[in-house]
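User
Please review the sequence:
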Amino acid sequence: MVTGSRIDRAYSNVHKAEVKLLKLVPEDEGELKWAGTVVLAQARQHLGPNDPRLVALEDRLKNNGQEMGPDLKELAVVTLLAAHEAEEVERAQARSFRNVLLAAVIATSIVAALFIVWNFKGNSTISAFLCFSPPAGQVCPTGRDASRIDALLVEGFGAGAAALASSLAIRKIQGTNTPYSIPAMLILLRLPVGALSALFGIVLINGRVVPGLSNLDSTAQIAAWAVIFGIAQESVTRMVDTQGNKVLGKMRGPERGFESDENS
């Protein structure tokens, strides 16, 4: 249920059944006559335009008025089997990418949670990296003094900002008819990444790594920069979105229509 392997096995079994049904179609019935067009439609969805099996089936059906005779049955079976294999490869790639996203969401969420627990159990250990010392006195995310919830506050602002940015990014994320929920994983990944971006961003400012910034003067400034870094995670997750769209673009289905030869 987590990896999606059962779904792929179910599709594989359905495909095997379709191939066997085609083999069992009686040669003297009219059902065989139009089976070639069905096979041709599926083959065009998943095989390249220059695939020799597809080309041969197209030519033979064209010369026979789009009707399939007993002499074309074996070629149709081979072509349908190849189309199903190509479709299963497409689905396997989508499932693998979804599983990588799921692992990334879990890993980043655990890391973000560990920093919060570390700060809470370690008597504000992380707060030493989140508090600043301007001329007016020490400033921390929750006030003048270090607190056990400093990391929680910073990561909360970062995750909230990432959630806001993800709501705007939804308009660019494609939906999918696959059962693997890649778009949903792309949105979920932004939350822990935004939390960690905010936390590490404040640490970088405190370490005087960010040019022009050495001290923050108020808790409001710390919160504001946490929001900025939370939104800035888009620069990283946008690249993941691009890869996700490429994976989804390889998934072919009847509703997508047929690509022309020059676009295939």
